[in-house]
Specification:
Layout: H1 4-7, E1 15-17, E2 63-64, E3 67-71, E4 82-89, E5 107-113, E6 119-122, E7 125-126, E8 131-136, E9 142-150, E10 158-166, E11 181-184, E12 187-192, E13 201-209, E14 212-213, E15 226-231, E16 237-240, E17 256-262, E18 267-277, E19 280-290
Parallel strand pairs: 1-17
Antiparallel strand pairs: 2-3, 3-4, 4-8, 5-6, 5-9, 7-8, 9-10, 11-12, 12-13, 13-14, 13-17, 15-16, 15-18, 18-19
């Protein structure tokens, strides 16, 4: 998506607003001018434009800014590979065929179970007719959410979401307990930092194997790590990327990967970290509980589509 040069322009980290994703912020909800007084000495009702406006976080809408996510595959059999197909239709109603390349891909597809325990990060292929396709295997029956993270050519980044169902008896799994240390494929990943609603929060993932720090992480999609955060309950979506870029002469290849993220509210979040080492991509999953400060009101954030983590957006 962004080039290493653009990523390298950041010094300590990328401040990312939750309303964006992978896929992209500033706070919105600015109050309009003071309402005019009416003829009785009171105040006239402000117009809708003058009232506080809240924008929907990324991934909660199937259609935004004239673009619509349209799945063409409607039947999924659990445990069986399916050629999943979909289009992104533009304001003219036709499938979009031209996309910006962001993080080495023209579109990123995230698939998550509604109970936030299953996660897939996929990269579909685009046909000349604007049809995206990718092999997809869902492990169990139930409800899933798909997120298309992209930027149409010449346009801003967007994250659109749609529901997907795998037929069969559904047994939801409980949300994994909050934990800051997880083990995946022989790696131990520790997450340091505290998420505070309405404020840019520093998170650092420290990666080790066999008790030794991993200092030779490999680039994956133009970065040393990718982080997707989902708010449990509605699966509001955030995708952030770390400071710097591989090969910029400044960014170390581990063991720490630092992110800056802003969440809009307290509650439980699922965080999925992708990193590559020894030629294999690994995914570490965390449950993080965010405390709402006493008496605080969640900050509304603008949804400019996908990935607020890049310069120029």
């Amino acid at each position: 998506m962004n080039t290493p040069a653009r990523l390298g322009a950041y010094v300590l980290g990328l401040a990312v607003v939750f309303a964006g994703a992978f896929g992209v912020g500033g706070a919105v909800g600015a109050t309009g001018p003071a309402p005019a007084k009416n003829g009785h000495g009171g105040h006239a009702t402000p117009s809708p434009a003058a009232q506080k406006t809240e924008h929907v976080p990324g991934g909660l809408q199937v259609s935004q800014n004239g673009y619509t996510l349209t799945p063409q595959t409607t039947t999924i059999t659990p445990g069986t590979e399916t050629g999943f197909r979909f289009t992104v239709n533009g304001p003219d109603g036709r499938p979009v065929t031209a996309y910006e390349t962001r993080h080495d891909k023209k579109l990123h597809l995230i698939v998550v179970s509604r109970d936030a325990t299953v996660f897939r990060h996929l990269h579909p292929e685009l046909s000349g007719e604007g049809i995206w396709s990718v092999p997809l295997t869902l492990p169990d029956a139930g409800a899933y959410r798909i997120f298309a993270d992209f930027a149409p050519q010449g346009g801003e980044g967007l994250t659109l979401g749609a529901d997907l169902y795998a037929a069969g008896d559904y047994a939801p799994r409980p949300l994994p307990a909050p934990s800051r240390t997880v083990t995946v494929d022989g790696y131990t990943v520790r997450l340091d930092g505290t998420l505070t609603p309405g404020a840019a929060s520093r998170l650092t993932a420290e990666i080790s194997r066999d008790g030794k720090p991993v200092t030779d992480l490999q680039p994956y999609l133009g970065a040393y790590g990718h982080l997707v955060a989902l708010r449990v309950g509605d699966l509001a979506y955030l995708h952030v990327h770390p400071d710097g870029a591989p090969g910029d002469g400044v960014t170390p290849a581990g063991p720490g990967i630092t992110f800056y993220a802003e969440v809009p509210s307290g509650g439980d979040y699922r965080l999925f970290l992708d990193f590559q080492h020894d030629g294999t991509v690994h995914t570490a999953a965390f449950t993080v509980r965010v405390e709402q400060p006493s008496g605080a009101v969640p900050t509304a954030t603008a949804d400019h589509g996908a990935d607020h983590s890049h310069s120029g957006h």
